[in-house]
Design brief:
Layout: H1 3-12, E1 28-32, H2 33-39, H3 68-76, E2 82-84, E3 88-90, E4 94-96, E5 101-103, E6 109-113, H4 117-122, H5 130-137, E7 146-150, H6 151-157, H7 173-186, H8 193-203, E8 210-214
Antiparallel strand pairs: 1-8, 2-3, 4-5, 6-7
Length: 217
């Protein structure tokens, strides 16, 4: 195990531990997909107490007039939309990788939390502070955390983990697994036994992609 991997194992070994503030010099994680899956802490899920409102989302963190949803749409656009007024978006087009669909209307897209808010709660966020949950719900620092996809696929996924839902596009599987593991690693979130087994099994059919991220707290 590399030095970085050893540090990461220590950082993410205990899910749900609240920290006072986001770290100034975050631990950088760089692991192969299969090694990263093995490093994720395993714990039973805890749904008790979950409410979506406990994750304040779609804020305008930099006060430029564009909230988190709009920032993701702008960042992920294949053809950039025109931005007017209070961050109104006109034109542009996007690729929904979950179902391999091209979309040319921002209003037809949902912004998916790669690891859904309810799943994050189950996996450790129940023990976070409100500011941590807000940071998670609006994470623009990790490009894999939020993704613009068709409303149909986002609502089909809902709050499911990879044990019960995977993207319908065949070519999306390996990217999705890497994105999921990246977010769980970044935020020190646990996996349950079934989720871990599914990730381990499915990853055998994928290239050993590099999980490259900074630990959030």
């Amino acid at each position: 195990m590399t030095i970085v991997a050893a540090l990461v194992a220590g950082v993410i070994a205990t899910p749900g531990v609240a920290h006072a503030q986001q770290v100034t010099n975050p631990v950088h994680v760089q692991l192969g997909l299969r090694e990263a899956i093995a490093a994720l802490p395993v714990a039973d899920e805890v749904r008790e107490g979950y409410e979506r409102t406990k994750f304040k989302h779609w804020i305008d963190a930099d006060r430029d007039g564009c909230n988190t949803r709009a920032e993701v749409l702008i960042a992920e656009a294949i053809t950039a939309p025109e931005i007017s007024g209070r961050c109104g978006l006109t034109g542009g087009d996007w690729h929904s990788y979950y179902d391999n669909v091209r979309i040319d209307r921002a209003g037809a897209l949902d912004i998916d939390h790669m690891v859904p808010l309810a799943e994050a709660w189950d996996s450790g966020a129940f023990d976070w502070t409100p500011p941590q949950r807000q940071d998670y719900a609006n994470d623009l620092d990790e490009p894999r955390a939020l993704v613009a996809v068709t409303a149909k696929t986002n609502r089909s996924k809902a709050d499911q983990d990879p044990a019960t839902w995977l993207p319908p596009a065949p070519d999306a599987l390996c990217t999705y697994l890497a994105d999921w593991v990246t977010v769980k690693t970044r935020w020190g979130l646990s996996v349950d036994d079934t989720e871990r087994d599914t990730l381990t099994l499915r990853a055998q059919d994928c290239p050993d992609a590099t999980i490259d991220t900074n630990v959030a707290y």
